[in-house]
Design brief:
By secondary structure, this protein is an all-alpha fold. Helices cover about 85% and strands about 0% of the residues.
């Protein structure tokens, strides 16, 4: 069982790093859904049920925003998710004093799912990593720290790759 725990974590780490190496929102969200499935499986294996169920909501969120294109449905889904996350936050604040940080990260992460421009997707998601990274450093989850740093690195590399270098090609800097 322990080897399966490590394999799911490693595969999730690899897909986390690879997810932002694409410049299409649908592909990014689909790979992120796969990443979340792997993380959720990992958490189920280590008996982290509350986080695993929370990730299940994130999986549905990513798939919803990847494949639904109707603006009204997207807005309705966004508002519904914000309501669900706020409800979960108020339930968890009694258990976890630092619950505000994952809540902020989740709201920013949902915002990146809502926007359609991939540059904004990367920027919103990069900004959502800071509160959650602070949270995992406070709780000292080594696996989560490694995942967050890998995730931040992947996003940062691809912000440079797709946004900054592409911008320099369009507008030459003297």
């Amino acid at each position: 069982m322990e080897i399966l725990i490590h394999i799911t974590w490693f595969l999730a780490l690899c897909s986390t790093f690879a997810s932002f190496f694409f410049d299409k929102k649908k592909i990014i969200l689909s790979i992120q859904a796969l990443t979340l499935i792997l993380f959720s499986s990992h958490l189920f294996l280590v008996w982290g049920f509350s986080w695993a169920w929370f990730l299940a909501i994130q999986i549905l969120r990513n798939l919803f925003f990847a494949f639904v294109s109707n603006t009204k449905m997207l807005t309705l889904g966004f508002v519904g998710l914000i309501w669900i996350y706020t409800y979960i936050y108020f339930l968890s604040i009694w258990i976890d004093d630092l619950a505000i940080f994952p809540y902020i990260a989740t709201i920013l992460g949902t915002l990146w799912c809502y926007v359609s421009h991939t540059t904004l997707v990367r920027l919103f998601f990069f900004s959502s990593t800071f509160p959650f990274t602070y949270y995992v450093f406070q709780t000292w989850s080594y696996f989560a720290i490694i995942i967050q740093l890998t995730f931040m690195t992947s996003i940062f590399i691809n912000i440079i790759r797709f946004d900054i270098l592409k911008y320099k090609k369009v507008i030459p800097i003297k």
